[in-house]
Amino acid sequence: MSPIRRILIAVKNPDLHRQPGIEKAIDIARQLGASVELFHAISTPVFLELEPLSGHSLAEVKRESLALRRARLEKLAQRAKKMGVQADCHVAWDFPPHEAIVRRADSTRADLIVAECHEGKRLKPWLLHLTDWELLRLSSRPVLLLKNDQKWREPVILGAVDPSHAHAKPARLDVDIVAHGSRLSRALKGSFELMHANFPTGFALLAPDEAPDGMLIERAYEAQKARSKMGFEKFARHARVPNVRCHLVDTDPIFAIPQIAREIGADLVVMGAVSRSGLKRVLIGNTAERVLAKLPCDVLVVKPARFERRVIPKARGMRVVAPPPLFPMAV
Q: Are 218 and 225 in contact (CB under 8 A)?
């Protein structure tokens, strides 16, 4: 796995005077010896009647908006350079924001995307905000979501793995989680710990009868737990993680990962995500999305090596829409 050399920092609002989250991302880049690109996508729709009302053409509005946002990003870039970080910036008319971020990261071959948790529309109390959710779902590159402004100093990094490969998760994904966590802990002079939520699912399917015996279910459950425990211990040995830094919890990962993160004072949790859609997503859910809301720390989400690209490479440009009627029609 190649080291992190290029980081794309998604800037949610360039107009803010204070940007502690961006400064934290730049500080992480400094510790990693990586360069950064500060990126902002202008996704606000422009009304068709803008030209006669303002006296400016759409081309002028587009050009002036780009120049204004770029000037503000340049100030952040200058701040990064003063911290010893090579920095550039880029602004584009593109929408929606999560697709724009993925497109830019792909075109620049960024090794890592860093974004602050957004405050967009929430679909359910346990789901991420929409932009974060879609960014995790669509990006094939690692995504670091910052949940707080506290800078990392010899961080405690927790890798959450699943050697049982529930729901057909790729076996290689756990190896990548450990590789990312271990590399970051070495580069940042921190410590790396490993955990597994030993919470078997679907054990009742092992019973042949439509109305399975309770004792048979319990035996199947315990057998699956024992196999999962052995699998985690074997994986930890191969990963060369000491026993004192390994955590096996008999709880649903949605609750177990935040629990262990709090107990060890983790600054970062590294976990994998397998993007799903449709009925499978509804039935299984996505652990990465549901865990994030409960975690007290930052999260690095990695994807399988052969992740299918789902974002078109060409930017969508300015979104021009018809203006709303001055007098709504009666119904």
A: no
Cα distance between residue 97 and residue 2, in whole Å? 27
Structural domains in the chain plus CATH codes: 1-140 (3.40.50.620), 150-306 (3.40.50.12370)
Contact residues for 115 (Cβ-Cβ < 8 A; gap 6+): 9, 10, 12, 101, 132, 135, 143, 144, 145, 146
The dihedral built from the CA positions of residue 169, 175, 180 and 181, taken in this order, carries a sign that is positive
Listed residue (149, 150, 119, 142) closest to 132, CA to CA: 119
Separation between Cα atoms, residue 132 and residue 139, nearest integer Å: 11
Picking from 128, 94, 112, 131, the residue whose alpha carbon sits closest to that of residue 26 is 112
Tokens of 130: 């929409």
* Three-state DSSP class for residue 187: helix
Q: Residue 76: which of 136, 139, 117, 29 has the closest Cα?
A: 29
Confidence (pLDDT) at 40: 97
Contacts (Cβ under 8 Å, ≥6 apart) of 320? 45, 46, 47, 48, 58
Pairing of strands 298-302, 143-146: antiparallel
Residue type, 90: H
What SS3 class is residue 101?
A: helix
User: 């399988």: which residue's tokens?
Assistant: 304
If one counts every other C-beta atom within 10 angstroms of the C-beta of residue 69, the result is 21
Rounded Cα distance between 32 and 159, Å, is 19
Alpha-carbon distance of 12 to 50, in angstroms, equals 25
Low-confidence residues in the chain, pLDDT < 70:
1, 47-56, 118-130, 166-169, 201-214, 275-289, 323-331
Question: Measuring CA to CA, which residue among 296, 274, 275 is closest to residue 177?
Answer: 274
CB 70 within 8 A of CB 127: no
Give, in degrees to the nearest 5, the angle at Cα 106 between 268 and 74. 75
